[in-house]
Amino acid sequence: SLAGVVGVICGLLTVLPVWAEESSIDADGLWVNRNGWIIEASSCDDGVCGTVVGMRAGANPSQRLDIHNPDENLRQREICGIMIFGGFEPNGAAGEWDNGWIYNPQDGKTYSSTMKRGAGDTLEVRGFVLTPMFGRTIVLTGALEPAQRCSTLESSVPHDAGGQ
Fold first, then answer.
1. Residues with Cβ < 8 Å from 73, sequence gap 6 or more?
2. Residue in 70, 163, 86 with CA at minimum distance from that of residue 125
3. 60 burial level (CB within 10 Å; 0-12, 13-18, 19+)
4. 86 CB contacts (<8 Å, ≥6 apart)?
5. CA–CA separation, 24 vs 119, rounded Å?
6. Among 36, 44, 94, 145, which is least packed, fewest CB within 10 Å?
7. What are the Cα distances from residue 63, in Å, to 12, 72, 116, 138, 157?
């Protein structure tokens, strides 16, 4: 009957937003990249965001400054404290997000990005130009509290890499 179909549709509409909310939680927490940066992923105004909150013991000190930023005024700022990715929205599949961006301090560029939970305790963030086929995946591993926490957090300040 029509009433039954409408009831099922209304039931699905009330469940879907809750499922989408739960999907975004899958990325929350502390993650470490291969450079030893500790990134905290959490919900923010425009989706799921990640901010560099610390460094692992032994992280390379030469990679602490945003020396490749296109804005010369930002090249002496510490990477520690900047929002490194953001804008991720659940795409309908559990543990997957689209429409995000990622800033790469190693070349000073911001890329379109997708993100998904990988095998084990990993988060795969893929930065790309035009299409994910033309990109690179960064694998983040679940992390414990950073050995060295940022002294000044600028988590409310986006990466400011020109254009974003």
1. none
2. 86
3. exposed
4. 44, 46, 47, 48, 49, 50, 100, 101, 158
5. 17
6. 145
7. 48, 17, 26, 16, 20
Residue appearing with tokens 């305790």: 121
**pLDDT tens-digit map of 43-54:** 988 899 999 998
Say what the pTM is: 0.73
Contacting residues for 126 by C-beta, under 8 A, at least 6 apart = 113, 114, 115, 132, 135, 136, 137, 138
What does the block give as tokens for 24?
């975004």
Token pair, residue 47, equals 């989706």
DSSP structure class, residue 65: B
Amino acid at 52: V
